[in-house]
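Saturday, quiet lab. Running sequence design on the C-alpha cells for the scaffold JK sent over.
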C-alpha cells in the first residue's frame, strides 16, 4: 500500500507539473502574441527663430535640434546601404523638416508636381495628427525639389480614397546637392532637403486649434532608393534581364515590420515640446497606445482571415494587465473595443480600421 501511495503521489506531482508547464507555455504564448515592437519617438522643439527654407539648415535652432536615429530597412532587419536621418522643429505657424541623405549618385528626372515621385529616389513624410489611422497626409520630394502631396481618407487595405489633387497650401521646400546632380562622372556625398508645412493645413474644421504644443502626432518617414543603370550617360532605374524594373529599397525611420508604409498604427511618435532646441524634454508613449496596437493586430488578423470574430474575445496581457476585447458584429461590419485600465476611455476600432475614443460612463 505504501508503494502504491508513493506511485500515486509521483503521478499527481508529474501531472501537476505538466499542467503548470502547459499553463506557463499558454501564458508565454499570449504574451508573445500581444507583444508589438515599440515605434520610434522623436521630440520636436519649439523655435522663435525665423527659419529660411533653403535646404541648408544653418539656423541656430537647426544646429541645436537633435537628429533622429539612422533609418533602417522597412521590415526592421537590414541595415541600409546609405545613411538617412532627419530633424524637426515647429513654431506657431509651421512644422519644419530637415533631412540628410548619403548618396554617391544624386539623380532625378521627374519635374511635374504630383507625378509619381517615388519612381525617382525620394524622401517621404507621412502624418496622422490625431492618430486615428484615417485622414492622413503624405508628402514626397525628389532631388529636383519636385513635390507630390496627397491626402488619404484611410489606408489602402481598408479601401482608401486618395485625393491626389489635394495640395499643401503654403508649402515651402528646398534641396541642396552635396556634389553634382545627374553627373555620372563623379561621386557625390548626398543631398539635403528642408520643408515647412503650415499648421493650418491640418485643420479638419473651421474652429479647430492645430497648435501641436504638448501633443504627439503619428509620423513616419520613408526613403525610396533604386539601383540605377546608365543609358547614354543618363540615369535610369535598373532593369532585370526580362526588362522589368528591379525592386526599390525602402528605408524608414520607424520600422513597419512589413513592406507597407500605409500602416499608420506602426508609425513613430513625434512629440511637440514647448522647450527650445537644445533644451531637454522627455516623452513616453501613453499606455492607451499599447491597447490600440493590439486592436490593430486583431483587425489585421481578421482582414487576413487568420482568426474569427469569436477568437477576438480572448484575454491578453498588456502592460501587466489582463484585458479581454469585446467583439460586436452588426449589419455594416464590426467593432472591437477594450475599456482601458489606464484611463477612463473605451478604445474602439471599427471594421474600416479607424480608432474611436469614448468616455466610459
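Result came back. Writing it out in full:
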Amino acid at each position: 500500500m505504501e508503494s502504491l501511495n508513493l506511485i500515486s503521489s509521483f503521478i499527481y506531482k508529474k501531472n501537476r507539473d505538466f499542467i503548470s508547464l502547459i499553463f506557463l507555455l499558454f501564458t508565454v504564448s499570449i504574451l508573445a502574441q500581444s507583444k508589438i515592437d515599440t515605434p520610434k519617438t522623436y521630440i520636436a522643439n519649439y523655435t522663435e527663430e525665423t527659419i529660411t527654407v533653403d535646404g541648408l539648415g544653418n539656423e541656430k535652432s537647426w544646429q541645436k535640434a537633435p537628429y533622429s536615429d539612422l533609418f533602417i530597412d522597412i521590415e526592421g532587419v537590414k541595415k541600409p546601404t546609405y545613411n538617412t536621418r532627419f530633424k524637426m522643429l515647429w513654431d506657431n505657424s509651421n512644422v519644419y523638416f530637415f533631412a540628410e541623405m548619403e548618396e554617391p549618385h544624386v539623380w532625378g528626372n521627374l519635374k511635374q508636381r504630383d507625378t509619381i515621385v517615388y519612381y525617382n529616389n525620394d524622401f517621404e513624410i507621412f502624418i496622422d495628427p490625431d492618430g486615428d489611422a484615417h485622414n492622413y497626409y503624405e508628402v514626397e520630394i525628389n532631388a529636383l525639389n519636385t513635390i507630390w502631396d496627397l491626402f488619404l481618407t484611410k489606408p489602402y487595405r481598408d479601401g482608401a480614397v486618395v485625393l491626389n489633387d489635394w495640395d499643401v497650401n503654403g508649402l515651402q521646400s528646398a534641396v541642396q546637392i552635396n556634389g553634382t546632380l545627374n553627373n555620372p562622372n563623379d561621386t557625390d556625398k548626398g543631398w539635403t532637403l528642408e520643408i515647412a508645412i503650415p499648421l493650418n493645413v491640418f485643420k479638419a474644421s473651421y474652429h479647430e486649434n492645430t497648435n501641436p504644443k504638448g501633443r504627439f502626432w503619428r509620423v513616419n518617414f520613408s526613403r525610396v532608393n533604386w539601383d540605377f543603370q546608365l543609358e547614354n550617360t543618363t540615369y535610369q532605374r535598373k532593369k532585370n534581364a526580362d526588362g522589368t524594373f528591379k525592386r526599390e529599397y525602402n528605408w524608414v525611420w520607424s520600422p513597419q515590420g512589413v513592406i507597407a508604409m500605409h500602416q499608420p498604427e506602426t508609425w513613430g511618435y513625434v512629440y511637440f515640446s514647448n522647450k527650445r532646441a537644445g533644451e531637454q524634454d522627455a516623452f513616453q508613449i501613453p499606455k492607451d497606445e499599447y491597447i490600440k496596437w493590439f486592436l490593430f493586430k486583431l483587425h489585421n488578423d481578421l482582414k487576413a482571415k487568420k482568426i474569427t470574430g469569436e477568437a477576438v474575445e480572448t484575454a491578453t496581457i498588456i502592460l501587466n494587465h489582463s484585458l479581454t476585447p469585446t467583439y460586436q458584429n452588426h449589419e455594416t461590419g464590426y467593432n472591437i473595443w477594450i475599456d482601458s485600465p489606464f484611463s477612463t476611455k473605451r478604445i474602439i476600432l471599427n471594421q474600416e480600421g479607424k480608432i474611436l475614443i469614448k468616455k466610459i460612463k
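Notes for JK: The chain has two domains: 41-276, 288-359. Confidence is low (pLDDT under 50) at residues 1-35. Ask whether to fix the surface positions before the next round.
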